[in-house]
Amino acid sequence: MIKVENLVKKYGNKYAVNDVSFTVGDREIVGFLGPNGAGKSTTMNILTGYLSSTSGTCEIDGHDILEDSNKAKSSVGYLPEIPPLYMDMTVKEYLNFVYDLKGCKLNRVKHIQEILNVVKIEDVYNRLIRNLSRGYRQRVGIAQALIGNPKVIILDEPTIGLDPKQIVEVRNLIRTLGRDHSVILSTHILSEVQAVCDRIVIINKGRVVADKPTDEIGEIYTGTRRLEAKICGNSKEVLNALRSLQGITRADALAEHDLDATTFVIESAPGVDIRKPLFNMLASKNMPLVGLTSLGMNLEDIFISLTNDPTKAPAKKSSGSKGSKGSNAKKTLGYSVKEKND
Ligand code: ADP
């Protein structure tokens, strides 16, 4: 439904988007994720035809956004971060205005009624937009994106500024939209992506660093096992011992003690089960292992790892996926202490 290939956008010598490629399938909900300045808005503005690219191609429903721009644009409904609402119009006036603006050919009354049902704003249809809550305004913004029944819906930070109840409602609405539309949603809220998206595209410094189905994003770290170990002894000496054990790719001490035991987070190389060598090594050095727990890799960890320092990335299974590890490590007492966040 959407095919972006080698998209580049330069401002002067600076790359806002640098060789970005991804696809969005029919009725797929894709989360477009990245820190501020990553290039999300630029990419979305190119997809909606608002900005032109420096090079690369972008197709919406088979129509090139530059060569066949009217058809491509009519296939996209866009909700910018700040919904383009006219406060002095009623919802009815506004939606009819957008209907005319888009030159919509569908049956006006029936089409608008269907949208009102989907986004659940019938009860405020005759109210002034100025008097609506943020949640309702956001729904009206989504309603205008749906006029003309475009195949692709692009939502820029759709839940920003909403209260928790409104967030849940808008997320449910996005899921509903995904039944009939392809949806791209930009966000920096990871739980949002996990809650509604089928696929995640993570962008950093203008480049795609991960592109995976949501439930497989953890596979970027396939084989990387994280363990939390409680080990007795001098924590610096234990840390040195851990770091010198073959198969351990990272070891950090947590600022957490249990009598004479310190808690460490240990990561092992892909495919290595470090537990037995770890036990034997610690036993030989008289550093009793008094606890060992397996830790999962959550999306926050993955996101921070991928967007922090790509140059230090270990080779990843996902194409183009890069990242460094242990982003939130603090330097304390001359060795890194990783704050516990699991
Ligand atoms: P995001 O939406 O992920 O926060 P943007 O797409 O807005 O990122 O911006 C990507 C990069 O391009 C940023 O470094 C930003 O400063 C730069 N940029 C965006 N728009 C312009 C512009 N009109 N002129 C110069 N630089 C820009």
Question: Any overview of this molecule?
Answer:
- By secondary structure, the chain is of the alpha/beta class.
- It is built from ten helices and 16 strands.
- The chain has helices spanning 40-47, 69-74, 91-101, 108-119, 134-146, 164-177, 190-196, 235-244, 275-284, 299-308, and strands at residues 2-11, 14-24, 29-33, 55-60, 63-64, 76-79, 152-156, 182-187, 199-204, 207-213, 226-232, 248-258, 261-268, 289-295, 329-332, 335-338.
- The strands form four sheets. A six-stranded mixed sheet has the order 6-7-8-3-9-10, with helices on both faces. A four-stranded antiparallel sheet has the order 2-1-4-5.
- A hairpin with a 2-residue loop joins strand 4 and strand 5.
- Helix 4 (108-119) crosses helix 5 (134-146) and helix 5 (134-146) packs parallel to helix 6 (164-177).
- The chain is elongated.
- Mean pLDDT is 84; it is low at 310-342.
- Bound molecules: adenosine-5'-diphosphate.
- Adenosine-5'-diphosphate (ADP) binds at residues 11, 16, 34, 36-42.
- Residues 11, 16, 34, 36-42 line the site of adenosine-5'-diphosphate.
